[in-house]
Amino acid sequence: MPAARDPSPVTLDEFAARMARLGGFESAPRLAVGVSGGADSLALALLAHDWARGQGGSVLGLTVDHGLRPESADEAARVGHWLASRGIAHAVLRWEGDKPKTGIQAAARAARHQLLAERCRAEGILHLALAHHRDDQAETVLLRLARGSGVDGLAGMAPVRAAGPVRVIRPLLDLPHDRLVATCRAQGQDWIEDPSNRNPAFARARLRAATDALSAEGLDAERLADTARRAARARAALEAGAASLLAGAAAIYPEGWIRLDPRPLLEAPEELGLRALVRCLLVVGGAPYPPKAEAVERLFAEVMRGLEVGRTLGGCRILPRREQLVIAREPAAATERSAIRPGETLWWDRRFTVRLRPEGEGAFTVARLGDEGWALALALDPESDAFGLPQPARASLPALWDAHGLAAVPGLGIFRKESSVSAEVFFTPPVPLAGPAFPVVSAGGGII
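Structure tokens predicted for tRNA(Ile)-lysidine synthase (448 residues):
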């Protein structure tokens, strides 16, 4: 047998070809790169820096310090030193506050994505590059297969997706990990090994330990990545069908709720009807992931029989109203409280962009209006035209609060007279109601 060749580093031409097929970059592109300090993310930072610089653009490396290990702050500083030595700007983002005692990896991932997206918005950067590669994609498919996922789960991670104010791109998704290690070695770049990657307490680490046995049975990374690509192709077709269905069945309102005619969903193939319902829940509820399939199927069955009482699912209230459904945010689930000052913008509850104009003064807290807040809002504006809003949609609107109480409900045009606040609110859900289908990297190398 011939000896196995050492993996080759990723060339700039290879990387440029992958960026070209992702498309959508400005003439002098600015990118943020999530850099954990591992070989994968450092290879991505080096490649992205050379690519952007060649087009008159720039890269900002972003490292999230979760504060979960005593050495994490020193590691983040080391990453910054490495990048600075190569002329790459860098910032450390810290996950502050209490950490959950269970589900720590999921919570850390959600916090990381939020911190990265917020920094991109603050910097005016439109693209966030992440270093997920072919081996990560294979692990994702296996994990989702073990959890009973359908086509959507088996499609794995998308090479490009919108995430609020930023576009997340994964240009390395078809490249194996060992080529990224080779890229670092070729450029004389050291890296940090994360001990959690070998911790058997985590499912991904257990899968990595079983890699050889799985490969011997044909479940190697290449085959699993091919499975993801084919499932993504099916998912894209189904999502296009669901989007067409929603175009005639749903009306979306700027206060963040949907009026849905269930009849077209019930007349369509069940898979399309289910997908259309899930998309409504994701748009209104703002959740990063859809509800469990079993729960959606139960709700859909009730809708088929004629929903008679309200239901709660995916952070939403689903209410029957005149042979149609009202889907609104569940007020009790809109728990986010965020500080904001004049001139600042934030993405609140993963649903609304709240922007304070710079001419005001003072600090405010953005939190849900609630029923008590609605009573205060009526006192400020007894003639409000918001009476026709569904109660949960009204109660879950973002409101501005200060030391004196309710200062404004910008989405309803209600402002306390003596307050100097000047604000705008826009409904900007994490996914569009009928947006582009799941992107697929075709076998020919393009995005479809």
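The CA atoms of residues 373 and 406 lie 7 Å apart.
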